[in-house]
Write a structure and sequence with these properties.
The complex is a heterotrimer of chains A (760), B (152) and C (364). Chain A is mainly alpha-helical. Chain A contains 42 helices and no strands. Residues 3-9 and 26-32 of chain A have low confidence and may be disordered. The chains are: A mainly alpha (760), B alpha+beta (152), C mainly alpha (364).
């Protein structure tokens, strides 16, 4: 059932048609009955379309306002419409357009009459001169704020350039056609056109839109001062204003240029080549002073900026410094503006203000890095020292220069080093170095705060040492080792730091720095060259070649700070720190008393001081080249002991070879090797037992060891017997196998014979 | 009935069988001995029976061969049957490989060569040894003290 | 007595094809040609293989296939177990002699052209058996877990890893991980004791059956009709040869313990993964020619890695070896030709020269 039938409404297609018609006609411009519009809508529809955006479009009878004519004429009656006296059809000449527009816009035309384009108002104006429409356009004439208007601030350059960039036209009027381009490249042009900066002036910003003054130079002052008020004000009170009053120069455009105004730079200032002041001023005049001051503050600003960037990169919080920088920037701007006073004293004041502000930046940035003023200066004066200090153990503990040398690092320059601030400086005499360090290192209550229980007896020990005693004899002796000679200075590392000169492995070399210098040592009556000896010794090889830090360095035997060769009858105690058994036995032996009586050194009489090598049996005899021969006669106890060891060593080797032989026969002699190890340990123990210097004890041990070795040899022999037994067994098997083989061959032979017989 | 004559052929055959049997016997003997397990039933690099319970007095120690190297077993505890009473470690000093010993008075293991000292857990107490002594596990089974490598 | 014996015999007779076998064996013959003595080498290889099975089984009673205990268990066998030294050394020597005999068997068949129709399959199986034998050698070499075995295996696997495409897979498979370790030992043990024996027994059974079924071939153009009864004539001779081999083995085991002959003292120690590869690690002698000749390949050939080219060449060589019956077309026509003979001589020369060079050449 159709809707139309049910509801009795017109059918849909009628509705649709109606809507279409409405739309079609509704979209048309409906002017109030205006003959011009009615006719021209058909006649020149594009024109009418364009006119919508015209600023005059809302007027009652917009066409007649400019063109004249009769709007009430009947449509299609062109004669009636066009027949009035004031009818002025286009095209218009420039003066025509001025007249027409001027019929309403009277003020503008008046203004025009004062400007360089006023010729257009005359009777036969130069065709070059523009009328209203040349600049404002027509049909539509956009509002000047409208971006589409040719006289909108962004478009006006192009509009003016239409003539002012035309070389031929400009040549006719003696004007430069380069001006629009100059403006385009100027700071104003760039700001306006590329940065869209509303503050920047277009052509009509300086040249009034209709009066376009350019002849009255004073008007330029007014033009510039519209925006640059401070500078203009400054200028008006300056000397240059008075000069200008007399000579009409200089004025803004004299120094800054008219159209090609670029951002002023410091290079403009001064009397050097390329500067502006040099146009009037001679070298040496005040502009030079201005220039140097300007340079100074600009440099300070750049430096401050760089420092802040560096600090920021190091992760520091530079908000406060950035604020100061902004203040400096503002002050810099103010200084630049104050140039226009052309008053040196005033300028200097402004610059000084800026300098002071920027100096705060550098100090505050330095403080961010925790630098003391010591470091600030000494970084330039003694760069290596400061660079090394970051590795120093004191730096780690936040003890800086003043911790040792006194003074106040918060104060600048020499004030930091004043005695009132507790400045001590460098110890004057070598003998003062110890007490210098001991100011802290001897105080347990202070040192415990860093390392609980750390030793604080260094100075007292040192006083007893060979070094300390030498200094007590001659406090000015530069050749004596003090704290800094071994520990270093300004790069002192902890003793357990492998890079420290007093780390175990480095100690011999450190001591050798002086003790290896023969001439130096001669003066103190020290004849030895310990390092070379030590280097080849068993201790030196262990420490320096194998890196075994349990091996003794110089300080382990001589002491750290109380460095002194041990007393003759204390040596056993020193060596006995590690070689306990040897020392204990020696102290129980007869040699102890004898050595004491004869003033002979313990341990080192036989083993040497520094060149302690692995002891050999050759030492232990009365043969030439041995040690015992120094006191013992040939054939006495040492020889017997020597004999013991010779036999033992030989037997040990014999036993080992036997075992190896048995093993090569694949007999199991594992037990033998273990026994051999035990026996060899016993031999080593016996060598230690030598230090008791008691023949009977050694003899007993010798018997025991010989028995053990015999046991080992027995095992070896048994093993070899076993192997021989195997071979015998094999021979039996071999015999049997051979027999079997022989029988088989016999059998084969017999079989062959039989086959032969069978085949015959 | 044919007389069984001792022909050359049968003599050779007879010899063949006899010597063949001999050869087989020569092969069988080592084989049979082989397949019967020896007194020590397996290699002792991972575990070994050291001694009887009660063979070690309190405070005493014994150096024994374990995996062809010296090892030390120490009894510190009262109960001879409890594994906790014993400590077994490698006896090879980690400094220069001397054989260590136990000092009951101090309860420390020490090395006579350069006075290195270890505690009963093998840790270095003083002296030149650079590292600890490896510790072995002690177990008591059927009245015997058994030492085993950790994890075995 | 006789009655009882024949009763027992007849009990089996009624159930098993004993009659058939006895008849067959009575009629089986071996051609009595002038190269008759070469026919023994197959049997010799078989003998050594049987010795391996027996001694291997015995060793299994005491060997422990883990990195912690392998070395100690071998030492235990040699030092504690009664006659362990004997069984172990016989096993080690027999392995080498088996491979030597296999090579001799292969070359004798090459020159006598035993592979020609209808015996192509026998040849192929034989070559495969040789490869399996070398596999036995390679896998068994690791089991004592001493320094030499460890590093020789490492080097060997690295060479295998050069194979393009499957190289990495092969390495991982052989190593049981990313490097030679206890996992490798377990794998090699399984390969040596189960996988390879299974395959070998299968191939060997077919190979022997074919030999029995097809009989021994005569050289080309040999028209002698002289034959020898396989049973018992040839068997007795085989027995003599085998007992001589046994003798040889026993002699070598007693007088030349394997480790002290072939392994320097320091390399006899237990393997440790932390050791650096010692200088002068050499593979077993039957791999030496490949290992040494590898060193003469330049680093890069026509843009390809030298090692890959070398491996490829060996692959081609191995394939060529397998396929001898097929590319020696003349033999199937009962014709002699210089090519297979020359090829054979060249191969022998190549193997011998490079094996010698492997031990004598300085450097590397």
């Amino acid at each position: 059932m159709r809707l139309s039938n049910v509801m009795n409404v017109p059918p849909t297609w009628i509705l649709a048609l109606t809507a279409a018609l409405l739309l079609f006609f509704g979209g048309q411009v409906s002017y109030a009955a205006d003959a011009c519009i009615t006719c021209h809508s058909d006649f020149t529809p594009e024109l009418m379309d364009a006119f919508h955006e015209d600023v005059h479009a809302a007027n009652q009878h917009p066409c007649v306002g400019c063109h004249g004519g009769n709007p009430d004429a009947a449509p299609d009656d062109m004669d009636a419409a066009h027949g009035t006296a004031d009818f002025a059809p286009p095209p218009w000449t420039a003066s025509e357009s001025v007249k027409r527009c001027g019929s309403c816009h009277t003020q503008v035309v008046k203004k025009l009459g004062t400007g360089p384009h006023r010729g257009v108002l005359g009777e036969n104006p130069d065709p070059d001169l523009p009328g209203c429409t040349r600049c404002h356009g027509f049909h539509p004439i956009y509002k000047i704020q409208d971006v589409k208007s040719p006289v909108n601030r962004t478009a006006v350059l192009q509009t003016c350039s239409a003539c002012h960039a035309d070389s031929a036209m400009m040549a006719r009027h003696n004007l430069s056609p380069k001006i629009p381009n100059e403006y385009r490249n100027s700071v104003h042009g760039r700001e306006l056109l590329t940065r869209d900066n509303d503050a920047a002036p277009s052509c009509i910003g300086c040249h009034d839109s209709h009066s376009s003054h350019n002849e009255n130079v004073a008007s330029f002052d007014e033009a510039c001062s519209l925006c640059h008020q401070r500078e203009a004000k400054a200028f008006k009170t300056s000397k240059h204003q008075r000069v200008w009053e007399l000579t009409k120069v200089p004025v803004c455009i004299t120094c800054h240029g008219s159209h090609s105004i670029t951002s002023p730079t410091v290079e403009m200032l001064g009397t050097g080549p390329g500067t502006i002041c040099s146009k009037c001023h001679n070298p040496g005049d005040s502009p030079d002073v201005f220039r140097s001051l300007m340079d100074k503050i600009e440099k300070e600003f750049t430096q401050g900026q760089a420092m802040i960037v560096e600090a920021q990169r190091a992760g520091k919080n530079v908000d406060a410094q950035i604020k100061i920088l902004e203040q400096v920037r503002t002050q810099l701007q103010r200084a630049r503006q104050s140039i226009h006073y052309f008053d040196l004293a005033r300028f200097r004041k402004e610059v000084d203000k800026g300098l002071e502000l920027s100096s705060n930046i550098s100090t505050s940035v330095e403080q961010l890095f925790g630098e003391s003023s010591c470091i600030t200066c000494h970084r330039e004066l003694t760069p290596d020292l400061v660079a090394g200090f970051s590795d120093d153990v004191h730096a780690d503990k936040q003890i800086s220069c003043d911790g040792c040398h006194g003074g106040n690092p918060l104060l600048q320059d020499e004030k930091a080093m004043s005695p009132e601030e507790g400045f001590i400086g460098v110890p004057k005499r070598p003998a003062d170095v110890g007490p210098f360090c001991a100011r802290c290192h001897s105080k347990p209550e202070y040192m415990n705060g860093f390392v609980p229980g750390i030793s604080t007896d260094q100075l007292s020990q040192y006083a007893l040492s060979g070094h300390g005693q030498a200094l007590s004899r001659n406090p000015f002796d530069k050749n004596v080792a003090t704290c800094v000679s071994c520990h270093g200075v300004h790069k002192i590392r902890a003793a357990k730091d492998p890079l420290s000169p007093v780390y175990a492995v480095n100690v011999p070399e450190t001591c050798n720095k002086c003790h290896g210098n023969g001439d130096l040592m001669k003066a103190y009556g020290i004849q030895t060259n310990p390092y070379e000896d030590y280097r080849e010794s068993v201790h030196g090889k262990a420490l320096l070649d194998k890196g075994d830090v349990s091996a003794p360095a110089c300080n382990d035997c001589h002491g750290n700070h109380g460095a002194k060769p041990p007393e003759v009858d204390n040596i056993a105690n020193v060596c006995g720190q590690c070689h306990v058994r040897n020392a204990t036995l020696f102290k129980l032996s007869v040699h102890r008393g004898i050595f004491e009586l004869r003033g002979m050194e313990q341990c080192s009489s036989c083993h040497g001081h520094h060149a302690i090598k692995h002891p050999t049996d050759a030492m232990l005899s009365t043969q030439p080249g041995s040690i015992c021969v120094k006191c013992h006669d040939p054939g006495s106890a040492p020889d017997q002991v020597h004999e013991m060891f010779t036999v033992l060593d030989a037997k040990s080797l014999e036993a080992r070879d036997k075992l190896r032989l048995a093993e090569s026969y694949l007999v199991n002699v594992d037990g033998g090797f273990v026994q051999l190890d035990k026996a060899n340990s016993e031999i080593t123990k016996m060598r230690v037992l030598v230090h008791l210097f008691d023949l009977d004890t050694l003899k007993t041990a010798d018997q025991k060891t010989l028995a053990m070795l015999q046991g080992v040899e027995d095992i070896g022999n048994k093993g070899i017997e076993n192997a021989m037994f195997r071979r015998k067994g094999f021979l039996v098997a071999l015999g049997l196998f051979a027999l079997f083989l022989a029988i088989v061959i016999l059998k084969i032979r017999e079989l062959e014979k039989r086959r032969k017989l069978e085949s015959e | 009935m044919e007389e069984k004559k001792l022909t050359r052929r049968s003599f050779v055959d007879y010899l063949l069988w006899v010597t063949g049997a001999g050869v087989l016997g020569t092969i069988a003997y080592p084989v049979l001995k082989f397949i019967l397990p020896p007194p020590q039933s397996e290699p002792n690099n991972l575990t070994m029976t050291v001694m009887e319970v009660g063979a070690l007095a309190r405070g005493a120690f014994k150096i024994f061969e374990f995996n062809r190297k010296p090892a030390i077993i120490i009894r510190t505890g009262v109960d001879a049957n409890a594994p906790e009473s014993y400590h077994a470690l490698s006896a090879v000093c980690t400094h220069l490989h001397c054989t260590v010993q136990y000092e009951n008075a101090s309860g420390q293991i020490f090395c006579a060569c350069h006075n290195g000292r270890f505690n009963l857990q093998g840790q270095v107490l003083s002296g030149p040894p650079p590292s600890a002594l490896p510790v072995y596990r002690v177990e008591i089974q059927k009245g015997k003290i058994i030492v085993a490598v950790q994890g075995a | 007595m006789e009655q009882k014996r024949s009763k027992l015999a007849s009990w089996f007779r009624e159930r098993l094809p004993i009659d058939y076998l006895m008849q067959y064996s009575e009629h089986k013959t071996v051609p009595r040609t002038k190269d008759f003595h070469w026919y023994f080498f197959g049997g010799i290889a078989l003998f050594f293989f049987l010795v391996q099975i027996v001694t291997g089984l015995f060793l299994l009673l005491y060997y422990k296939p883990t990195a912690e205990s392998a070395y100690e268990s071998v030492h235990f066998i040699e030092s504690e177990v009664y006659f362990g030294w004997l069984i172990r050394n016989v096993h080690a020597w027999s392995a080498n002699l088996m491979i030597l005999a296999s090579f001799l068997h292969l070359f004798s068949n090459w020159f006598l052209k035993g592979y020609r129709k209808p015996r192509e399959m026998t040849w192929i199986l034989g070559v495969l058996l040789l490869f399996l034998g070398m596999g036995f050698g390679f896998s068994g070499y690791l089991l004592p877990w001493n320094k030499l075995s460890f590093f020789a295996t490492k080097v060997g696997i690295e060479i295998a890893g050069v194979t393009p495409l499957i190289g990495n897979f092969l390495m991982k498979f052989l190593q049981g991980g990313d490097e030679v370790s206890g996992a490798t030992l377990t794998r090699f043990f399984a390969i040596h004791v189960a996988i390879l024996p299974g395959l070998t027994l299968l191939f060997l059974a077919i190979h022997l059956y074919l030999v029995q079924y097809q009989g021994i071939s005569k050289p080309i153009g040999d028209t002698t009709e002289k034959t020898m009864r396989f049973f018992p004539d040839f068997v007795y001779r085989e027995l003599a040869v085998w007992s001589f081999c046994l003798l040889l083995l026993a002699f070598l085991a007693v007088f030349y313990p394997f480790d002290s002959v072939f392994i320097p003292l320091d390399l006899q120690e237990k393997a440790s993964a932390f050791d650096p590869t010692p200088v002068g690690i050499k593979p077993e002698w039957y791999f030496m020619f490949m290992y040494q000749s590898l060193k003469y390949f330049p680093g890069k050939i026509l843009g390809l890695s030298g090692k890959v080219v070398a491996l490829f060449s060996f692959g081609v060589g191995g394939l060529g070896l397998l396929m001898v019956p097929f590319w020696d077309r003349w033999s199937s026509r009962e014709q002699r030709h210089w090519l297979p003979k020359t090829a054979g001589i060249l191969v022998i020369l190549f193997i011998v020269v490079f094996t010698i060079l492997g031990y004598v050449a300085p450097g590397h």
